[in-house]
């Protein structure tokens, strides 16, 4: 198991003032960091990749579809073209940074709803765009991990059953799914069954508590989730994801209005300790 932490807990754009977060992750024993890839340019991420290389720490990234004007699933050809260009930007920046995996909900704009579930045409257009994206990513040595969201954030992809079918439509070996325990806590009847449903399609496991605070302090059965992942021979990144109220733009996006952890040191240390301990205990039993 390789353990990482998503730096969206502190910032949406990792600049020089944020490098202490990477150092903190190393001090707390993480194997890698998950970098938010929401803005900026290739030159910035090439610089950031150099800083990560200096520290000898691995990295993945998380990206989104920012708005309805850059939706790769849109029926409007001009909008869809802008969406595909945005996917290209994601791949270019991730490659410049040296990311192993591109994860996140880079399918359709968050918070944009049509009043119904996804149509077959939306999925067809999205699958075509994501197959193209996977082709580019694999040539640059990267994999994709598309993230289903709960139905209050997106109508496009919500469950593991949907995600497995969608991965079949994309039909590319570099394309997989990011399983997030927070979203699944809302959408799935059983998280262990959901993980078994995904099987080898799961490329990244996001460990996120039901309140998006420190894992192990809430309702989610992480022992059962880790057992299911190990039963499926999962060997991808296990990523701590939590959100706080310190950054207004992130607080607004994640609907976090109250502190979910004391500070980043507490989050990194206690969250990492819990994941490693729980994973190891399950591993012995399995």
Give the helix level as a range of percent. Answer: 40-55%
User: How many structural domains does the protein architecture include?
Assistant: 1
- Tell me the Rg in angstroms: 18 Å
Choose one word for the global shape.
globular
Q: Output the CATH class name.
A: Alpha Beta
Nearest-integer average pLDDT = 95
CATH architecture: Alpha-Beta Barrel
User: How much strand?
Assistant: 5-15%
The span between the termini is 14 Å
Largest sheet, strands/sense/barrel = 8 strands, parallel, barrel
- Strand order, main sheet: write it out: 1-2-3-4-5-6-7-8
CATH topology type: TIM Barrel
Polypeptide structure, described:
InterPro entries: IolE/XylAMocC-like (IPR050312), Xyl_isomerase-like_sf (IPR036237), Xyl_isomerase-like_TIM-brl (IPR013022). This is D-psicose/D-tagatose/L-ribulose 3-epimerase. Pfam families: AP_endonuc_2. Residues 22-263 form the Xylose isomerase-like TIM barrel domain. The protein has 286 residues and is of the alpha/beta class. It has one domain (2-285): Alpha-Beta Barrel (TIM Barrel), CATH 3.20.20.150. Helices cover 45% and strands 14% of the residues. The chain has helices spanning 19-27, 42-55, 77-97, 120-139, 160-170, 181-187, 191-198, 222-231, 248-254, 264-285, and strands at 2-6, 32-36, 58-62, 101-104, 143-146, 175-180, 202-207, 237-240. Strands 1-2-3-4-5-6-7-8 form an eight-stranded parallel β-barrel, surrounded by seven helices. Strand 5 (143-146), helix 5 (160-170) and strand 6 (175-180) form a beta-alpha-beta unit. Helix 7 (191-198) packs parallel to helix 8 (222-231). It is globular.
């Amino acid at each position: 198991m390789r353990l990482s932490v998503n730096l969206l807990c502190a910032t949406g754009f990792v600049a020089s003032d944020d490098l202490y977060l990477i150092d903190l992750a190393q001090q707390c024993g993480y194997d890698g960091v998950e970098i938010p890839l929401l803005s900026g340019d290739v030159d910035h991420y090439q610089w950031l990749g150099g800083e990560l290389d200096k520290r000898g720490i691995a990295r993945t990234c998380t990206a989104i579809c920012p708005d309805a004007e850059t939706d790769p699933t849109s029926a409007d050809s001009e909008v869809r073209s802008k969406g595909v260009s945005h996917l290209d930007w994601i791949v270019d920046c991730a490659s410049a940074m040296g990311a192993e995996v591109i994860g996140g909900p880079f399918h359709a704009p968050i918070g944009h709803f049509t009043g119904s579930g996804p149509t077959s045409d939306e999925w067809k257009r999205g699958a075509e765009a994501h197959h193209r994206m996977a082709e580019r990513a694999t040539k640059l040595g990267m994999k994709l991990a598309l993230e289903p969201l709960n139905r209050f954030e997106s109508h496009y992809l919500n469950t593991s059953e949907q995600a497995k079918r969608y991965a079949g439509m994309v039909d590319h070996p570099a394309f997989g799914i990011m399983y997030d325990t927070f979203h699944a806590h809302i959408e799935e009847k059983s998280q262990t069954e959901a993980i078994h449903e995904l099987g080898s399609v799961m490329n990244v496991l996001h460990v996120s508590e039901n309140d998006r605070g420190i894992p192990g302090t809430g309702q989610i059965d992480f022992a059962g989730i880790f057992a299911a992942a190990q039963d499926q021979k999962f060997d991808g990144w296990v990523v701590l994801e939590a959100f706080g109220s310190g950054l207004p733009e992130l607080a607004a996006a994640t609907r976090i209005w109250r502190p979910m952890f004391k500070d980043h040191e507490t989050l990194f240390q206690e969250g990492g300790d819990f994941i490693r301990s729980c994973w190891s205990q399950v591993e012995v039993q399995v």
